[in-house]
Structure formats: structure tokens, C-alpha cells
Amino acid sequence: MLLALELGVAALALVVFLLGLGRRRDSREIGLVAAVGLAGLAGLSLVIDARGPLFDGAFVVDGLAVFLKQVFLVATLLAVVGGLGRPDAAERHRALEYHLLVLTALLGMMVLASARELVLLFVAFELMSIPLYVLAGFAKKDARAVEASLKFFLVGSLSTALLAYGLSFVYGVTGSTRLDVVTRSVAGGDPLLLLGLLLVLSGVGFKIAAFPFHMWVPDTYEAAATPFVAWLSVAPKAAGFAVLLRVFVEHAGPPAALWAGAAALLGGLTIVAGNLMAIPQTDAKRLLAYSGIAHIGYMLLGVAALSPHGAAMLLFYLVAYLFSNIGAFMVVETVAQTEGSTALRTLRGLAQRSPALALAMLLFLLSLGGIPFVVGFWAKLYVLWAAAQSGLYGLVLLAAVMTVVALFYYLLVAKQMYIDAPARSTPVPVPAPLALVLAVSAVAVVLLGLYPGPLLDSALRAVTPLF
Amino acid sequence: VAALGVNGAPVLSLVTATPFVAACLIMLVGRTRPLGVRLIAVGAAAVTLGLSLYLYLAYDGAAGGFQFREQYPLVRALGISVELGADGMSVLMVLLTAVIIFAGVFASWTVRVRDQEFYALLLTLVTGVFGVFVSLDLFVFFLFYEIAVLPMYLLIGIWGSTGEVRPQGIFAWAFRETGVGTKEYAAMKLTLYLLLGSAFILVGLFVLYFAGGVNSFSLLQLSEVTFTPATQRWVFLALYVGFGILAGIWPLHTWSPDGHASAPTAVSMLHAGVLMKLGAYGVVRVAMTLLPEATQAWAPLVGTIAVVNVVYGAFSAMAQTDLKYVVAYSSVSHMGLVMLGAATLTEAGLNGAIFQMFAHGIMTGLFFALVGLIYEKSHTREIGRMGGFGRRMPGIAACFTLGALSSLGLPGLAGFVAEILTFLGAWQSASRWWLFPAVLGTLLTAIYVLRVAKRIFWGPLAAGPHGEWAALPDARGPEWVSLVFLSAILILFGLVPGLALSLVDPATVALLDRIGVLP
Questions:
Q1: I need a labelling partner for B403 at 20 to 30 A (CA). Which of B31, B148, B329, B368 fits?
Q2: Residue A245: how many CA atoms within 13 Å on its side-chain side?
Q3: How far is CA A441 from CA A347, A364, A375, A431, B497, in A?
Q4: C-alpha distances in angstroms, A288 versus A343, B127, B213, B259, B390?
Q5: What distance in Å separates the CA atoms of residue B138 and residue B144, rounded to the nearest whole number?
Q6: What is the mean pLDDT of residues A241-257?
Q7: How far is B146 from chain A (nearest CA, A)?
Q8: Residues of A in contact with B196 (CB under 8 A)
């Protein structure tokens, strides 16, 4: 059953739809059903071991696809459960729409991870993107959310246009929409084909929010609902990297050196820009938005390395980033529920108000900052390792120095939590679903930090056939 | 894997893990039991002290090399394993760390605010320090290095003190804007400087790993590889800068006076006493051991910067009005002597460097403990306001004078042995002129420490802001433990330098043999 997971997500979406039809103001059940279904699918993805191509090679289930699908499923599961912890929010009153859109976007990502044909790839890309625009403006009475949604939509449409334009060149030159044919033709060095591929790179650059295609990120993150943002900051990015891996890395021969340079440049710029712009932020979500941009830069180095280790580190990094970033956003959400704001100052003295919450946030921040014994360290290390292996020593030094800059602003947050005195001494209440998400993320961050070997091995196994 | 300890006990992992286990225990049980927290901390410090004494006694100096070996795989795909082992130099450094933390636990007895977290972080930091000294796998070495650096941020940020010296001069506004002099500023500066250093170290280690081609970070395996001269040159520079930042080399030393002056007592003791040594240890253990040709090529630069450190640090110390800054700058000056000894590439010089690491670690630990006590009792660090304290606190005055005498190199105290060996080494080295600035530095040291000691302890008793200094108490209770303990070691190692040198010398000779400069 090669399509089992996709069919499962589609079925789950239908179930949610049918369940929601009968109710006017429905609440938790739909979210719970979605969460249970996602958990089941995530479990299913571990047991199914069917591998192979489908539809004449347009759709492929290989190690990479399965690994990415697991990332999508886990990220969505955490976000849906986290969303249950929002009392009285739009997600709850219009649970049908919300969860249907999330699951549809998820379906798009799942197909994207397997797509090896340009039309399928494009359709999946859109299936993922369009629900995201709607979700960004889900709180439709909130002017900021609508603005964020519009901005996201306009930039996203531009990126789609770039992608489609680039793909048209690719098709025009190669006469085929199949990626294996395209890859073989690259060796011919046709400039139009290279132009097409560069356009694809920029189109995806918008989606993963690489500098200078990042402008939509901070505004959208700031205005949209936090559990959704947590998901938005991870899953679609992972999907973007799925495209990059499929188009640019899989079976890429020597000509790949061309866009390895482009990816390295993009990565270096993104790291520098993201980190520098994060420094002056005073809002936790904006800070995480810019720091997320910097992380995308590090992941791009994995594409630039063009080696099994580079691709494996990209997957490892995605997992590390998933737990750390979703965790950090969920802490922000928890505090914001009590304080009514996501400003950084609301975190002041958190260590004395809610030591466990502060410790969780510290773990996530340290992981994002790349400190030993939490998973982010291995991610950063593995990036630098893979880039060094490919001889990119200059970039390695730049990236290593920029991690120090990143630690500066992460430590400033830690300072607010641990050093500054709290404005109030009452503990911050943590709703049960959020507590669950935080606990899972924190445990994952620490466990993978202490014992990264198995994940590293499985990432390496997943990508080795690509080369 | 060679023999594990004498009884097969994993002594090195025990030493390394004990403080961390104690830290976890403290976090679990200590919320409402301040005495329990301290007892656990003292217990852990005593256990590590006992274990490191055992290491010291059990180390077979005649056999030399790395002993007490242990090895556990960590990340097979990258060839990383936890490989522990200690030679004479590491054993001495482990002993130093154990002594300082033992004294430090007593010196911070009076921490009242959030004491549970304080002791937990302090002990975690110590685990990092032990780990660095006993790791033979460079990657694990690096991991422990990071653990030793990070808790510092919170330790200084939460429990540190902001000095009374306010920024003056035409750039005062800029200093005020950035918060220069506050503990938050010092904590951030220290952390970022040291992490910047670790970025250089990491890149250097990667180059060694890939250029070595043995798919391993093991020091022993890498030391069998001969790296090309170009690789050696650049990697040495990266490691020298990286470790050098921690060792306080000029002009990258400015984090250290700020950090040490703002840190709480035990953290200053540990940082100036042990962590800066960790930088020097890294240069000797990793850079000089693995890159012999580059060591010879860069030695003139390293030595020259070291003498700048000695003189510049001494002059800076002379100009300070805040007692803690005086001691902090004196550390910069003495770390210059350590690096100078290493750069001479002579047996005497290198032995002197390592002995200096030990002697200065003990001495500066004693100094910071004393400064902490003086501050706690008089609530000032301003030298200008103090005077005649010797009448009220004779014990503290005696210990301070002892430390001062060791600092300026009085025969019979540990500092003398270190300095005379370093000077001998400098004279035997290729650049004899190093001797003169080094001796000048010692002279300057004599001037500033004696002046400070005179100002604080002798003469008529100052009244204090509200006349309350007439009732200044001497040290008491647990405070005595650290003072007596550290003073005794200063005298002991001064009278019987062989206690350390017999351990260090085989390691030194082996290293010089590797570099190829033995006559």
C-alpha cells in the first residue's frame, strides 16, 4: 500500500468534515478526532515498509519521502494538540474549517514529499499553500490577521508564479515533466534550463523564507494564532526542502556544482540576515520568526554540501528544529494566554513564577542556539561537519561565528526569564494540551540531544539512495 | 582499552560525574533545605577531592603517558567516543579543580538568594571543567568545554555584583548605554567571548578531523598523523585564538576582568583559578601536541603576546581602584606568564607554565575568596575607602599577605617556583629578550599587590560610611576552611615543588620530544 498515508490523511479530512457538518458551534471533539487520527497515521508510518514507485515513477515512496512524511505528521500532530489548548478561540468555534484546512495542507505536503514529476509537484505545492493563506487569516475579525494573510497570499502567489515560470522553462528545454529526465538533461548545460531551475530555487526560497525572500515571515507570524504559527514555521519549510532535495539534489551529477554555489550564497546570506535582524526584536514571535529564518540558512548549507551527509544533516536539522521551535512557540502561547501579549517582557522572571515552564523554554532556546546535550547542538554541528566535509570552510567559520550572535539574543530571552525579577509572582497556568505538547517536545529535545545516533543513522539511510 | 584504574574502577568518569549527580540531587531535594543543599555540595566536593587525590597518588610517574583509560562509543557514524585518560599534567589540573571547588563551596556558604540553583549550576560547571581535563577525544573535550562556559552566564547574571566604579570620561555615555560595568553586561560579554572562542576551536577541530583522515577525534589517533605545514599553520592559529580567548591572551582578554569582577565569589575563584587554565591547557594539550611544526613556527608570536600580557596586565592592575579588578587584572598578567612558559619550548619553561597554572589557580582562588569576604563584611570593593582592616581581621590580612607574596614570587611559596622556572626557560629559549619584560612584570606585581595590601590592611582603621567598620569581624566558621586550605597548599607546594614537578616533567618531556626541540 504505497498510498496508505495519503489516503489516510484524506480519509481523516473527510471524517472531520462529516463530523463537523452536523454541528453549529462545535468544540473539542473535532480537534480530538483529528489528533487521534494523526497519531494513528504517525504510528502507521512506522510500521508500513512498502517502498517503490507508483504511476509510472511520478510518485515515489522511498526513505526520504517516508522520513519527511513522519516529520509532517508529527509537526501537525503537535500543532493540532497545541491548538486544543486555546480556550475560546476561532479555531475552536470553527473547528471544522480549521482542521479541514490543516489536514488538506498536510495532504499537499505528503504528496509533495513523494512527487517526482513536475505537474504533480506543482499541484501538491498549491494544495499545501492555499489552505495556509486561509489559515493565516483565520481570525477574520482581527485586522492584523487579515493583513498578515493578505501579505502571505501576495508573496506566496508571486513565489508560485516564479515556480510555474521556472518549471515552464524546464519543460520547454527537456520536453519532459519527469524529474529523472530533467536531471539527465542538466548535463547538457542549456542556459534556459539553468535559468528555469534558478527560478524554481527562488520560488521555493519564498516558501522556506530564505533571505531576501523572507519579508512575509515576521508579520505573518506575529499576527496569526500561535499554535498555527508553530506549525507554519516547521512543516511548510520541511516541504520546501523536500522540493529542493527532489529537484536539486537527487541524482544530481557534476553540474549541480552550479546551484550548490547559489544555495551556499543563499544560505550564508540567510544566516547573517536572520541572526542580525533578530537582535533588536522585542516580540517573542518576531524573534522566533527571524531566528527561524537564520535556521533556514543553516539548512540550506546542507543542500549546498551536495553530499549524503549534507542531505542527512538537513533531515536531522528539520527534526531538531521541529521540536525546539514548536516547543518555543507553545511556551510563548502559554504565557500569552495569561499575559495577553507575546512581548518578550512578559517572560520576565518566568523562572520564579513557573520554574518548569521556564526550564522548558530554556531547553528549547539552548537547542535553537546549538548548545551541547540538547538536540539543536547536533543539528548545528552536523551542518558544519557536512559543510566542512565538502570543503566549505569559509562558510563553516561564518556559520559558527553567527551561532554566537544567535546565542546573544537567545541568552537575552534567558536573561528575562532567569535573571530579571517577575512583575507578578503568580504561576502561569498551563492548559493540559499545551502541557502535553511541551512535555513531548522537551523530552524529545533532551533525549535526542543525549542520544542522537539512531536518528542520525536513519536520516543517513533515508538519503543515501539519492546519490 | 588499557587498564581501567588500579582496581578497574572508572575513576575519571566518577570524578567527572560526581558534581553533576550532586547538582541533580540538589535540584530534587533542596528547595526548602538550605543546609541540605550545602551538605550535598560539600559531600560532592569532598568525594571529588578524595578521588583526585587518589589519582594524584596512583598515577605512575615512572611509566608516564595517559593512564586510567576509559572508552565508551558515543556517535559511531562520526567516530566520536567518550575516551578518558590522564597524564601528569591532567592529574595536576584535576587536583587543582577539586581543591578550588572544595574551597569554593565553603566560600559561597552565605549565598542566600536562590541558593539551590546556585549550587546546582556551580557543580554543573565543575563537571564541565573536569571533563575537559580528562577527555582524550577532542570532540568530547569540546562538549565539556561548552558545559564549563554556559552556566557562567546565569551564575554571573543572577548572583553577580555590579561594581561601584561608574563610567567616566568623554565616552561615559556610550558605556552607560551598553551597561558597561553591570553584571548583566559582564555576563553577556564573557559568554559571547568564550563562545566565539569555541567557534574557532570547533572549526579547527573539524579541519584536523578531515585532514587527519582517520575518521576519529581521538587525540591519540590524531597525534599519529602528520599534518601538512599549511594545515598546521592555520589550525594552530584557530586553536590559539579559540583557546587563547579563554586563557585571556591580549588583546582578547577584556572579558576576564569584567567577568571576574562581577561574578560571585566561588565563580570568580573557579573561573580565574581553573577556567582560564583550561584555555592554556587547550593550547598545550591540543594545539602544541598535534601541530608540532606550527608550534615552532608560531612560538615567537605566542611568546611575544604573552609578555605583552604580563606587562599590560600588571599596569592595568596598578590602575584599578576596585579591589576585584586588581585581582582580575593580575590574573591576566599571570596567564601571560603561563603562555610565556609554554612558548619558550624548553623543559624548564613548560614545567614552569604548568606549575604556574597550578600555583596561580590556588593563589587567585585564595585572593577571590578573601575579596569576597572583605566585600561581604565591609560592603565595599573600593580600595580607596578601606584602611587598617588588619586590626579587625588579622586572619584575612595574614592570608592576603601570603597570597600577595606568592603572587610576586617570594621564595618558599608556590608562585616563586613557577616564576623562576619560566624565567629560566625564557633565558634558554630562542628569544632571550622575553626575560626582561617578564621580570619587569614581576616587579610591577610586587608594587601593586604590596600597595593594595598596605592600603587595605595597615595604617589607621578607616571609619566606614557610617562608622561601622570599627566592628568588622574576622573570618569565621566555614569561611576559615577555604582560607586555611588554600594557604596551606601555597606553602606546601612552595616548599616541596617536587610534589607537582615529578608528575608534570614526564608529560613535558614527551611533549617537547614530539615537537622536536629536545636537545
A1: B148
A2: 33
A3: 19, 8, 11, 15, 53
A4: 12, 31, 39, 29, 55
A5: 10
A6: 78
A7: 7
A8: 401, 404
What are B324's three cell numbers?
576585584
Among A309, A313, A316, A381, which would you mutate to test the B interface (most chain B Cβ atoms within 10 Å of its Cβ)? A381
Q: What is the pLDDT of residue B5?
A: 41
Gap between the Cα atoms of B407 and B403, Å rounded: 6
Alpha carbons A392 and A399: distance in angstroms, whole number: 11
Per-residue pLDDT of B274-316, as tens digits, reads 888 888 999 998 888 888 888 888 888 999 999 999 999 999 8
> On the CB side of A124, how many CA atoms lie within 13 Å of its CA?
24
Q: What's the mean pLDDT in B63-78?
A: 79
**What is chain A's Cα-based Rg?**
21
| Partners of B512 in beta bridges | none
Give the span between the Cα atoms of A8 and A110, in whole angstroms: 11
> What is the Cα Rg of chain B in Å?
22
Q: How many other C-beta atoms can be found within 10 angstroms of the C-beta atom of residue B496?
A: 13
* Strands, E assignment, B247-299: none
Give me the DSSP letters along A162-218. HHHHHHHHHHHHHS--BHHHHHHHHTT--HHHHHHHHHHHHHHHHHHT-TTS-THHH
Q: Give the DSSP letter string of A70-128.
A: HHHHHHHHHHHHHHHT-TT-HHHHTHHHHHHHHHHHHHHHHHHHHB-BHHHHHHHHHHH
What mean pLDDT, rounded, does chain B reach? 85
Number of separate helices (H) and strands (E) present in chain B: 23, 2
A contact residues 411-440, partner B, Cβ 8 Å cutoff: 411-412, 414-415, 418-419
Residue labelled with grid coordinates 561564518: A398
Collect contacts of A187-191 with beta carbons under 8 A, ≥24 apart.
Answer: A187/A253, A187/A254, A187/A255, A189/A255
Cell matching residue B339: 603562555
User: Is the CB of B154 less than 8 angstroms away from the CB of A397?
Assistant: no
Interval A235-245 mean pLDDT: 90
- Whether B179 has its CB under 8 Å from any CB of chain A: the answer is no
**Residue A122 in contact with residue A164, Cβ under 8 Å?**
yes
All cell numbers assigned to B474: 574576622
Nearest to A397 among B147, B188, B203 (CB): B203
- The candidate with the shortest Cα–Cα distance to A198, out of A181, A209, A186, A188, is A186
Q: A382-398 burial, b for 16+ CB within 10 Å, e for fewer? A: bbbbbbbbbebbebbbb
Say which of A397, A412, A419 has its CB closest to residue B158: A419
Which residues have C-beta within 8 Å of that of residue A311, sequence separation ≥ 6? Answer: A64, A245, A249, A302, A303, A305, A463, A466, A467
Contact A373 B143 (CB under 8 A): yes
Looking at CA atoms only, how far is residue B120 from chain A in angstroms?
Answer: 14
Which residues fall within 8 angstroms of residue A150, CB to CB, at 6 or more apart?
A: A137
Q: How far apart are CA A290 and CA A292, in angstroms?
A: 5
Q: What is the pLDDT of residues B403-441, one digit of tens each?
A: 888 888 888 888 888 888 999 988 888 888 888 898 899
When CB atoms are compared, the residue of B147, B188, B207 closest to A411 is: B188
pLDDT for res B10: 85
Residues of A with CB below 8 A from B203's CB? Answer: 384, 388, 393, 396-397, 400
Residues 323 to 382 of A: which have CB under 8 A from any B CB? 366, 371-373, 381
B467: region left, alpha or beta (phi > 0 left; psi from -120 to 50 alpha): left
Cβ of A372 within 8 Å of Cβ of B74? The answer is: no
Element (H, E) at B86: strand B80-86
